[in-house]
């Protein structure tokens, strides 16, 4: 072996210090190259480069693994397996018994996202024994006829509630999933509904369902349990006549603002109200409006009295709901006798449930319930899956009253003032600022508890037992999985303890390399151990890449044999896989980098000397200016070369050399910008033509001496070489000669055409349809596109191709008829055509190929009028179809762009602003001013008689009429592009024809922060007011410019969005915490 034991490296290479950082190890591994030439490399140098003899780290000496040291096997995850291990660490499976219901407690309900408010009501209704007993009596043929072969799936709300209550009563689970009932109710699990509204709607739905039952004892259960009656009694002040309007209630909604206890709230609910002024009462006896008094009189009370404390109220100042965090005191025993109009025998109630909203905001928070067990009188707290029994058979609101003391609306910590402190409550009373519903049960005479037991019917108990069996099977499966994981972990523990001791490779013994990542995953029991993959360690020669040594670990041959036999993989990398070629290449590169500064000075001096005749080499001037940086870049590329060839073996070298060749500049001059030093890829590419020969541009090269070239070839061995005798590329010479000849021909042709059609080129003395020229009967029509292309050629004959033909067919329909009328060419269609004088048409016919002749002539009628006739005639069928399709496209668009401009005091804010973005490159090139001879007029503008320039018609696509009107005069002197240019502050919105104006206003609100009801929209002075109308019906077409005039702004746009879309009243935007 080359490393029989601890030894000194060669004298030229200082010994690397043990425990050196990664970079220091890297430098130490290659420090020897300063004194060793590539041809002098020995096996010792190769082992130094691969760090074979760097001392291994000892346990406790380093905190994490040393990636630069292939012999460091510390910190790769072995600490988990060494020593005694708790068997619970071998699995991540919770004890299934933790999901089992505790003895003598109740079952919880899963929160599906934002359904805690549903769970609280379900628990309260479950503890209403009369309601539960009634639901069990409901007929359910589906449940009664169900067999055990499949899971029971209720369909109706009543069936879901039956099954849910049966599970809450006799399930073995700690909590159950109410998603079936929630889905049947059509609730959104991601949005928190108004809890008070949900209570009303659910009881109403349940009442309707039970009223359809055949059993008459079930039809009125909801009314018997929850329904009471009061009357609105109005007394006329004039005649003292009293009128009564009876009404039913399922809960009393009590205002709590300004009150301290429940008695005050009920008293206010029943207090007398004066009816006077505009609110006077029409008396049937007096037969006119009179002052009167009105009050509510309680006639009868239900068995279960639901009192809603109105904590969530509308704030007129902010326009949003807010929560009243007022402390309200309420008794455990409530005597409603003083409030009844006619006293009943049983009007004393006991507190049976308190529903709590934790949080200080109406738009967020969490709902829980405190309920009393009717059988034992014990109080329980129901918090979704968590059930907590209160001690001493007493209601303990506890932390529910402090939950918001340390949190504000945003969840940040705050400190409440002393005014929020909980007031003292007397015995038998409770005080809460979070209770929003109190449930009182009629007190049984003499404390009779005969009805405190409810049995689950046999058909429901059968379904519960089926679910319990399913749960027990799941528990058994989980226990078995835990056992298998523990057994597997113990086996892995023994394997690791055995193999880890064998991993270190002793000096002088055979060794192999395995990936560090694989070793970590092997020691990480949470991931499956795959086969060992060494492919990404290979260099282009099929050996171990020197730069990959930091990602590999050197292990003993015995350990490698065991690992590969158990897990497979490959290729196996041993001592013979250390790559001499890669080490030699790296040595050459590092030495050249060190030598580069001296060589640069030497070449600079040599370049000052004269070159002997016929002995020099051609070098690019640009290459000579930047050769030092170019050489440094190449050396760094060479140093990283095989890093870009990861996973490449000898069979893939062709691909590698190909990519390197292109990087070296073999793509030719077309791969770079001329003369741009930053784009240089290799030396001399600036004087190599696209054919691989010497460039014909003599000014771009100079002669250098053989000594200079020899130095340069050390750094650029693949650079193109051109001796002094090398002839320039003959193909380039021929193409250059032909190009100059063609340019001269084009210039002659352009000059002749410009002379013969000078007015057309300068747009001088042009015919117009609005004012038909005198003494002219006929004008000729050509596409404006042809004229624009022709002018572009005349302006730049050396850079543009000559125009050879007039394509009039694009102005004709498939039947050969003309597509435009005289009237349409006076408006929008004028942007597609150009008019020619007859003399100009004669020149056009001689100079270009014309496929069809199109003309328009003026003819006088017998009555002395004038008509205009085109030749060919108008094809009315195609014209009508064209207009219909045009209008249809404008009304049935999708994903089109419109522009919204904000207006202040009927003036556009940015009327004179410059465009928000510059034109595109191609557009800017077309619009660049051309130098013109003295006296020549601007070809891009019409010249009017008063000398003012008028902007010519916009260039458009021929055959498709655009909705815009002819362009107006401008003083800017800038040719206008057909592309819409946004002004600063103007915003583009994506819309569809079938969306409503209301939806557009919401988009504008988010773009401009202007409330929909503060938006005044218009197009061309026409107001857009119907929010329900679609944009297509309102005449909003693609590229429309919509003016926005805004009234006073509103600050909170997120809440305003909810209000405008009608969502705030039914949903709360935040999920419960």
UniProtKB/TrEMBL annotation:
GO terms for biological process: protein deubiquitination; proteolysis. One of its GO terms (molecular function) is cysteine-type endopeptidase activity. Its main location: cytoplasm. Residues 991-1042 form the Ubiquitin-like domain. It is an enzyme of class 3 (hydrolase). This is Ubiquitin carboxyl-terminal hydrolase 48. It catalyses: Thiol-dependent hydrolysis of ester, thioester, amide, peptide and isopeptide bonds formed by the C-terminal Gly of ubiquitin (a 76-residue protein attached to proteins as an intracellular targeting signal). Its EC number is 3.4.19.12. Belongs to the peptidase C19 family. InterPro entries: DUSP-like_sf, Papain-like_cys_pep_sf, Pep_USP48, Pept_C19_DUSP, Peptidase_C19, Peptidase_C19_UCH, Ubiquitin-like_dom, Ubiquitin-like_domsf. It comes from the Eukaryota. Residues 641-650, 668-677, 929-953 have a biased composition (Basic and acidic residues). One of its GO terms (cellular component) is cytosol. PANTHER family: UBIQUITIN CARBOXYL-TERMINAL HYDROLASE (PTHR24006), UBIQUITIN CARBOXYL-TERMINAL HYDROLASE 48 (PTHR24006:SF722). Residues 484-578 form the DUSP domain. It is found in: Cytoplasm; Nucleus. Transmembrane segments: none annotated. Residues 960-970 have a biased composition (Low complexity). Pfam families: UCH (PF00443). The gene is USP48. Coiled coil: none annotated. Residues 638-677, 911-987 are annotated as: Disordered. Residues 973-984 have a biased composition (Basic residues). Residues 107-443 form the USP domain. Keywords: Cytoplasm, Hydrolase, Nucleus, Protease, Repeat, Thiol protease, Ubl conjugation pathway. The keyword Nucleus applies.
């Amino acid at each position: 072996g080359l490393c029989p034991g601890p030894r000194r490296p060669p004298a030229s290479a200082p010994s690397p210090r043990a425990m050196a950082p990664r970079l220091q190890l890297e430098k130490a591994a290659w420090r020897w190259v300063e004194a060793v030439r590539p041809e002098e490399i020995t096996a010792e140098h190769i082992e130094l480069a691969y760090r074979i003899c760097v001392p291994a780290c000892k346990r406790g000496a380093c905190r994490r693994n040393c990636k630069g040291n292939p012999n460091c096997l510390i910190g790769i995850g072995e600490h988990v397996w060494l020593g005694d291990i708790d068997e619970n660490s071998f699995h991540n499976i919770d004890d299934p018994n933790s999901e089992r219901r505790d003895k003598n407690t109740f079952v919880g309900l899963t929160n599906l996202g934002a359904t805690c408010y549903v769970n609280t009501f379900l628990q309260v209704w479950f503890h209403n024994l009369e309601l539960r007993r009634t639901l069990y009596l409901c007929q359910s043929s589906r449940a009664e006829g169900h067999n055990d072969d499949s899971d029971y799936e209720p369909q109706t709300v009543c069936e879901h509630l039956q099954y849910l209550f049966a599970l809450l009563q006799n399930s073995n689970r700690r909590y159950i999933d109410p998603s079936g009932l929630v889905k049947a109710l059509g609730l959104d699990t991601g949005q928190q509904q108004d809890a008070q509204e949900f209570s009303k709607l659910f009881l109403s739905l349940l009442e309707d369902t039970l009223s359809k039952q055949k059993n008459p004892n079930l039809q009125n259960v909801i009314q018997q349990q929850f329904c009471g009656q009061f009357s609105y009694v109005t007394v006329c002040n004039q005649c003292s006549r009293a009128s009564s309007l009876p009404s039913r209630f399922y809960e009393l909604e009590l205002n709590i603002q300004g009150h301290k206890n429940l008695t005050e709230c009920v008293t206010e609910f029943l207090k007398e109200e004066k009816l006077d002024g505009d609110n006077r009462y029409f008396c049937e006896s007096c037969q006119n409006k009179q002052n009167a008094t009105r009050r509510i009189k309680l006639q009868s009370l239900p068995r279960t009295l639901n009192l809603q404390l109105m904590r969530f109220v509308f704030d007129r100042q902010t326009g949003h709901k807010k929560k009243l965090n007022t402390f309200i005191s309420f008794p455990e025993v409530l005597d409603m006798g003083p409030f009844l109009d006619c006293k009943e025998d049983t009007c004393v109630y006991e507190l049976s449930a308190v529903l709590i909203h934790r949080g200080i905001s109406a738009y967020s928070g969490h709902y829980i319930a405190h309920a009393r067990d009717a059988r034992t009188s014990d109080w329980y707290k129901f918090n979704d899956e968590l059930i907590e029994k209160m001690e001493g058979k007493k209601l303990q609101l506890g932390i529910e009253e402090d939950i918001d003391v340390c949190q504000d609306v945003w969840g940040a910590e705050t400190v409440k003032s002393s005014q929020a402190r909980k007031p003292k409550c007397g015995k038998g009373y409770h005080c809460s600022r979070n209770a929003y519903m109190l449930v009182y049960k009629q007190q049984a005479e003499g404390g009779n508890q005969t009805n405190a037991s409810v049995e689950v019917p046999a058909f429901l108990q059968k379904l519960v037992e089926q679910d319990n069996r399913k749960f027990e099977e799941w528990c058994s499966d989980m226990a078995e999985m835990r056992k298998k994981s523990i057994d597997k972990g113990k086996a892995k523990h023994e394997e690791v303890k055995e193999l880890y001791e064998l991993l270190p490779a002793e000096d002088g013994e055979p060794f192999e390399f395995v990936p560090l990542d694989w070793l970590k995953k092997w020691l990480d029991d949470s991931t499956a151990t795959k086969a060992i993959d060494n492919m990404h360690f290979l260099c282009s020669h099929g050996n171990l890449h020197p730069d990959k040594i930091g990602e590999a670990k050197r292990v003993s041959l015995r350990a490698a044999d065991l690992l590969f036999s158990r897990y497979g993989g490959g290729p196996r990398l041993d001592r013979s896989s250390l790559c001499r070629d890669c080490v030699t290449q790296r040595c050459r590169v590092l030495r050249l980098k060190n030598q580069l500064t001296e060589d640069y000075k030497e070449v600079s001096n040599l370049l000052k000397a004269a070159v002997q005749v016929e002995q020099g080499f051609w070098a690019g001037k640009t290459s000579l200016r930047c050769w030092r940086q170019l050489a440094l870049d190449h050396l760094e590329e060479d140093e990283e070369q095989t890093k870009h060839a990861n996973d490449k073996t000898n069979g893939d070298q062709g691909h590698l050399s190909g990519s390197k060749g292109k990087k070296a500049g073999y793509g030719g001059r077309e791969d770079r910008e001329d003369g741009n030093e930053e784009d240089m890829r290799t030396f001399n590419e600036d004087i190599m033509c696209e054919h691989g020969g010497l460039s014909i541009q003599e000014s771009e090269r100079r002669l250098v001496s053989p000594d200079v070239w020899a130095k340069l070839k050390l750094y650029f061995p693949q650079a193109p070489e051109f001796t002094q005798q090398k002839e320039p590329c003959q193909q380039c010479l021929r193409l250059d000669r032909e190009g100059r000849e063609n340019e001269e021909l084009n210039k002659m042709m352009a000059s002749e055409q410009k002379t013969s059609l000078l007015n057309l080129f300068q747009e001088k003395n042009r015919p117009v349809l609005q004012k038909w020229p005198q003494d002219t009967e006929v004008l000729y029509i050509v596409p404006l596109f042809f004229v624009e292309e022709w002018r572009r050629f005349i302006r730049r004959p050396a850079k543009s191709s000559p125009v050879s033909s007039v394509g009039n067919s694009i102005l004709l329909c498939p039947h050969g008829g003309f597509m435009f009328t005289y009237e349409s060419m006076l408006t929008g269609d004028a942007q597609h055509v150009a008019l020619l004088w007859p003399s100009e048409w004669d020149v056009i016919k001689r100079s270009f190929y014309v496929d069809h002749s199109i003309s328009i002539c003026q003819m006088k009628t017998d009555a002395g009028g004038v008509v205009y006739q085109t030749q060919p005639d108008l094809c009315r069928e195609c014209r009508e179809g064209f207009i219909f399709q045009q209008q249809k496209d404008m009304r049935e668009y999708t994903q089109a762009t419109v522009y919204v401009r904000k207006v202040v005091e009927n003036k556009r804010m940015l009327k004179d602003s410059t465009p928000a973005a510059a034109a595109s490159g191609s557009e800017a090139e077309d619009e660049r001013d051309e130098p013109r001879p003295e006296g020549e007029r601007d070809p891009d503008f019409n010249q009017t008689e008063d000398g003012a320039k008028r902007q010519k018609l916009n260039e458009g696509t021929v055959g498709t009429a655009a909705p815009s009107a002819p362009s107006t005069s401008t003083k800017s002197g800038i040719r206008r592009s057909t592309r819409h240019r946004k002004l600063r502050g103007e915003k583009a919105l994506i819309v569809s024809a079938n969306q409503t104006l209301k939806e557009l206003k919401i988009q504008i609100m988010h773009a401009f922060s202007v409330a929909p009801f503060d938006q005044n929209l218009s197009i061309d002075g026409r107001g857009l007011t119907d929010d329900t109308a679609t944009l297509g019906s309102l005449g909003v077409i693609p590229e429309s410019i919509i003016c926005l005039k805004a009234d006073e702004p509103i600050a909170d746009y997120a809440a305003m969005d909810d209000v405008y879309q009608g969502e705030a009243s039914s949903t709360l935007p935040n999920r419960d915490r």
